[in-house]
């Protein structure tokens, strides 16, 4: 029982606080073994050894108590911070010191651990309900776009600089930054810029899942800005209408990532190639310190894929957004300065990437599309759970870079391209020359989950005419 009690609450806590990062069966089996199986076997082993060795038998209660407390605390640390050697060492030292007091009350300690597990299970139930009630019907298309046939088949590159705000927003409002040098570069390289483009959702997962689904998900009805969207990673990298359409039209697909953020829950890969292997990743990814050189991986992939049509999704976490949490923020002014410095780095990377593609694939269709804005104007990005105070803060979240190098003039297809949810439908209309696909464009509103300074709910914060508004999702449908 002591082995079970030591691991049960940390396991429940881990799933309650990180459930979107550990949805695969591989992770589940590993965690059951690590949090439940190994502690139980350790205590059974201790019981066996204590019967064989006198000194262990004499102090078995103290050893038993130390093992229980250290395993319990160590697994809690792992659940919260990941594998941190220094923190775990401190925990073991504290557990050793407490042993001399707690061994007299070990039965009560075990009872307390089971009570914590029961309370934790109560909090886990709503999360389990959300998973079991999840419905992927929102991915269904309103027409036969998944059977579309391309008349043009250029190689297609989707380059995503995370958090790169739209070019119309940079010189104004919270950013006030001259970015004319990069705009000139885009023009010289035959990119069409969509200066007022924006995302429909505020985060990488919520925005990209909608973009690759070509549909709105409305956060699956969950108005909690601090909870990741259910199965978002699976939609982005496993199965989605966009990948299905590319494969139906004979395209090989490649996913090239700087960091494994999109792979954290080990979704089944729907891409033919990914530059990051699950063998190189920990079971639970608590941070994104792991990095890959995306341009090196992209160049290798281009050289290897010369005989077929290709779709590449290249993502780099740059310029990113301001600090996520209040505890790590340096205040809105310094956060702005740091963001703009990263923006300069992003410009250099994008220039190099475009030059690399042009070197090997001068006739390619290249899309530079950010997932959301940089949140400049806030002290930290999770402040976005508050009702937006002004127009500039709203657009700082949703305004995002879009520039496309079209091999041929797209004007008869892209005049209504305003938001990320309609990006691929517009692209497929261009490739198929089938304008009927444009009859089912999704609405161009931007949505935000809000839980402060307004009733908890999902709100429309930018309407289809690019006005900053604040309306509940329900009222906006009337």
Descriptors:
2 domains, Alkaline_phosphatase_core_sf, 7-stranded mixed sheet, 3-stranded antiparallel sheet, membrane, transmembrane, transmembrane helix, Sulfatase N-terminal domain-containing protein
Structure description:
It is a single chain. By secondary structure, this protein is of the alpha/beta class. The protein folds into 2 domains: 2-132, no CATH class; 137-476, Alkaline Phosphatase, subunit A (3-Layer(aba) Sandwich), CATH 3.40.720.10. It is 44% helix and 10% strand. The protein has 15 helices and 10 strands. It has helices at 2-18, 25-52, 54-58, 60-81, 85-102, 106-132, 180-188, 204-213, 232-237, 241-248, 294-304, 332-360, 391-398, 423-432, 473-476, and strands spanning 156-161, 192-193, 251-257, 273-274, 309-316, 365-369, 402-405, 446-450, 457-462, 468-472. β8 (446-450) and β9 form a beta hairpin. α1 (2-18) packs parallel to α4 (60-81). The longest helix has 29 residues, at 332-360.
Radius of gyration: 25 Å
- Average residue pLDDT: 90
CATH homologous superfamily label of the largest domain: Alkaline Phosphatase, subunit A
Q: Main sheet, how many strands, which sense, barrel?
A: 7 strands, mixed
The SSE order reads: HHHHHHEHEHHHEEHEHEHEHEEEH
């Amino acid at each position: 029982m002591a082995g079970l009690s030591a691991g049960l609450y940390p396991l429940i806590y881990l799933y309650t606080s990180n459930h979107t990062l550990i949805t695969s069966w591989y992770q589940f089996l590993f965690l059951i073994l690590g949090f439940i199986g190994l502690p139980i076997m350790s205590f059974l082993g201790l019981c066996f050894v204590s019967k064989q060795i006198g000194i262990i038998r004499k102090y078995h209660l103290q050893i038993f108590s130390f093992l229980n407390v250290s395993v319990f605390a160590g697994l809690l640390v792992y659940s919260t911070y990941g594998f941190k050697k220094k923190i775990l060492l401190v925990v073991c030292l504290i557990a050793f010191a407490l042993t001399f007091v707690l061994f007299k009350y070990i039965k009560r300690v075990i009872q307390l651990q089971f009570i914590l597990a029961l309370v934790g299970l109560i909090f886990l139930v709503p999360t389990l309900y959300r998973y079991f009630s999840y419905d992927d019907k929102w991915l269904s298309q309103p027409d036969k776009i998944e059977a579309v046939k391309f008349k043009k088949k250029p190689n297609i590159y989707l380059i995503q600089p995370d958090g790169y705000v739209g070019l119309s927003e940079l010189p104004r409002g919270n950013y006030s930054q001259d970015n004319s040098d990069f705009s000139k570069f885009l023009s010289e390289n035959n990119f069409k810029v969509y200066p007022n483009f924006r995302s429909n959702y505020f985060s990488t997962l919520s925005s990209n899942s909608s973009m690759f689904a070509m549909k709105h998900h409305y956060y699956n009805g969950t108005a909690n800005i601090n909870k990741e969207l259910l199965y978002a990673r699976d939609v982005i990298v496993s199965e989605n209408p966009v990948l299905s359409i590319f494969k139906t039209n004979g395209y090989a697909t490649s996913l090239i990532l700087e960091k494994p953020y999109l792979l954290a829950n080990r979704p089944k890969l729907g891409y033919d190639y990914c530059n990051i292997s699950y063998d190189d990743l920990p079971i639970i990814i608590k941070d994104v310190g792991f990095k890959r050189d995306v341009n090196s991986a992209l160049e290798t992939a281009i050289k290897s894929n010369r005989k077929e049509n290709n779709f590449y999704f290249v993502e780099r976490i740059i310029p990113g957004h301001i600090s996520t949490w209040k505890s790590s923020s340096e205040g809105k002014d310094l956060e702005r300065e740091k963001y703009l410095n990263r923006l300069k780095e992003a410009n250099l990377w994008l220039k190099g990437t475009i030059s690399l593609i042009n070197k090997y694939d001068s006739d390619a269709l290249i899309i530079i599309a950010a997932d959301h804005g940089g949140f400049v104007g806030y002290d930290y990005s999770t402040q976005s759970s508050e009702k937006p105070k002004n127009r500039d803060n709203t657009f700082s979240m949703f305004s995002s870079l879009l520039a496309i190098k079209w091999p041929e003039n797209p004007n008869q297809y892209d005049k209504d391209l305003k938001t990320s949810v309609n990006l691929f439908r517009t692209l497929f209309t261009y490739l198929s020359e089938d304008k009927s696909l444009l009859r089912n464009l999704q609405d161009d509103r931007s949505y935000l989950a809000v839980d402060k300074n307004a009733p908890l709910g999902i709100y429309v914060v930018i309407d289809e005419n690019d006005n900053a508004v604040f309306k509940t999702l329900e009222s906006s449908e009337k």
